[in-house]
Design brief:
2 domains, Thrombin, subunit H, 245 residues, six-stranded antiparallel β-barrel, eight-stranded mixed sheet, mainly beta, globular
């Protein structure tokens, strides 16, 4: 029996005009090159399997390596990617690095109110079979300003190392629709135009200094067409509060 794959980027029903979508497409080849050469090495794909193959569910999300201790790597993601399921209980966690290698993962810390979590995995990156070493990115100390150029890096639709560019529009409180209420963030978040899709939850939003300025947790779409309008990310200052708590 094939497992059910559930996209975990929550969508919002927003009554916005189609012209707003054009804001999200930014062309900056030098920034893309920097992301491809450096930031992508900190990107991970996370698969959480619940229940059994006959009766269970599989969730796909993204993450960003933010710390290393020897061969143990720590990655930020969303709480709703790895939290226990009310029906199936705790998940079996698998972390894929940017080269496609897979590792057992462990949940180290969670914050439902921030929709943040830290997962860890062990990678012997100095051995040839695992490819080049992985990277860890710093978290920006302060929230990025509106109009800052950013890149979203993650695993939309199960892809590896997908990169989209956009700009920070504003900071605002976002109310999720009742249908998509896995996230419970109640403070102003980063609203940006870098395109994200199902599977992008937990992926990083980075600035031109290659610092993490947000962790994506939801995306807004047009109710009538389903077209992407803007993405929503937990801001840097809230990420730092979570990590330093």
């Amino acid at each position: 029996m094939r497992k059910k794959i559930i996209a975990i980027v929550t969508a919002l029903a927003l009554a916005l005009s189609l012209s707003a979508c054009a804001i999200g497409y930014v062309d900056d080849s030098s920034f893309v090159n920097e992301i491809s050469e450096t930031a992508v090495k900190a990107a991970v794909k996370i698969i959480a399997e619940y229940g059994t193959e006959e009766y269970g569910a599989t969730f796909i999300g993204s993450g960003a390596i933010c710390k290393t201790e020897g061969n143990r790597y720590y990655a930020l993601t969303n709480n709703h990617v790895v939290e226990a399921d009310p029906v199936y209980g705790q998940c079996a966690l698998y972390v894929f690095d940017c080269y496609g290698n897979v590792y057992d993962g462990w949940v180290e810390n969670t914050s439902p109110k921030d929709d943040l979590a830290v997962v860890s995995f062990i990678c012997f990156a100095d051995t040839a079979e695992y490819g080049a070493p992985l990277a860890a990115l710093e978290i920006a100390e302060k929230n990025a300003e509106p109009r800052t150029l950013v890149a979203a890096v993650g695993s939309p639709d199960g892809q590896f190392n997908a990169v989209t560019l956009g700009k920070i529009q504003r900071y605002a409180k976002i109310e999720l629709t009742e249908e998509h209420s896995a996230s419970h963030v109640s403070y102003p978040v980063v609203c940006h135009t870098a395109v994200i899709h199902g599977g992008s939850s937990g992926g990083m939003l980075v600035d031109e200094n290659l610092k993490i300025v947000g962790i994506n947790y939801a995306g807004g779409t047009l109710e009538e067409t389903g077209e992407f309008v803007e993405g929503y990310a937990v801001p840097a200052e809230k990420i730092n509060e979570f990590l330093n708590a």
